[in-house]
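Backbones bend. Our protein:
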Amino acid sequence: MSETVLVLLAGVAAGALNAVGGGGTFVALLALVTAGQSPVTANAMSTVALVPGAVAGAWVYRRELAPVGTASTRTLTAASAVGGTLGAGLLLALPSASFETAVPWLLAFATVLLAFGRRLSGALSTALGRRVRLSSRAVVASQFFLALYGGYFGGAVGIMMLALWSIGLGLDTAAGNPMRITQLAAVYLSAAALFLVASDTLSAPLTLTALLAGAVAGGFGGAHLARRLPARLLRGVVLGTAVSMTVLYFLRG
């Protein structure tokens, strides 16, 4: 019972973090491993459990989607869905040890981009004499590879999206948050569909149900909270989460 309560609370925290700025996967994964699941099963289970919370958050933000450059929302979502499916396939087919080693460094890179992305974009624009701006194809291609990573592991993929959009398009964190949640929902939904069919995600139904219930509540509440946070405070929450996750991953390794 204590493990079920732990997983339930972790689901609430994970759903809320994903809605506000990202980082929910780490909380869910850590709780599931503590509850006795293997890392691969915990990874697949956390992805499945976070789907409803991401969808709930996307529903709250449905009228506030801001375009990511000139890429259409449909094209971006299609890239997220295809990449998420392929990434989930890689998780089931390949050993995860080497990727686990790379995760802290990927998080550190994403955190640096988030913290200094807009300044770096401005510096590059000044040096080149023009504004640095990703083309529509570059945005879609980058989204596909981020979704591939998201389907494979998922940790901080939302943070990486915001980092890419910040440095490549100058998109503000608050303005990009609704699209981030929508793309997270596409990645999780596509990956979860494969995990449900090809993994042992359903081997612990009580644990999965507890995480699902918590993630839905956290995702819905977190999305409403994020809409009311000032842009500067939201950016602070995102950066704080990114730094904390990076440190925890390095300590964990």
